[in-house]
Automatic annotation (TrEMBL):
It comes from Psychrobacter aestuarii. This is Thiopurine S-methyltransferase. PANTHER family: THIOPURINE S-METHYLTRANSFERASE. It is an enzyme of class 2 (transferase). Its main location: cytoplasm. The keyword Ribosomal protein does not apply.
Amino acid sequence: MTPDFWQNAWQTQQTGFNQSKPNAMLRQHFDKLNVPKQGRVFVPLCGKSVDMLWLLSQGYHVVGVELHEQAVKELFNEHGLSATVTAHPTQPNLKQYRADYQGQTLTIWAGNLFDVQPDDIGQIDGIYDRAALVALPDDAPERMRWQYTQHLGTLTGYAPQLLLAFSYDDDSGITDKALPPFLVTREALDDYYAAHYDIQLVAKEKAEYVSTRADSGYRLAYVLTA
């Protein structure tokens, strides 16, 4: 998906991926990463997810990246957070929003994830990916999903990760649709991450709706550890 696709999705309010409550799998399984209190959690393609507020409430600092700046502004405004806004010193298309929340720090870079570098986010102790990997296609020649996973590893030093995904009732013969969220098979996960992570499926829950195709299937939670 091009940046224009996501900008348009936010502008036209095609944001069904945005949830009003913290994700249940996040609440049930994040502790499996063993991130220390006061540790720093990275949330890629974070939108204005309230999952970040839940992480903050649990005693973690949160660093996010979101392409659509208006979503970042809405997150801070809707939750009464007064943000300090700082331009990136060398990347004109990046802007940092920062505020305190219940004693923790929320930092979000507004801009393209691929413009963000390790020095911009600092040490990361854990990653929470609910809607980033499944948002990206992996068609040749761009292979955006592959590029994302490799850049994520560079940014975070392959910190432990809670990754949420889905599967259909029968994945055999599935031809994925042209719009996200995209099916990410276990074989694909191994391709992206097995060189650096042990990949463990920790939850598989039946669901009547798992994607915009309105297919039934399963919601999945993976824990990735170095």
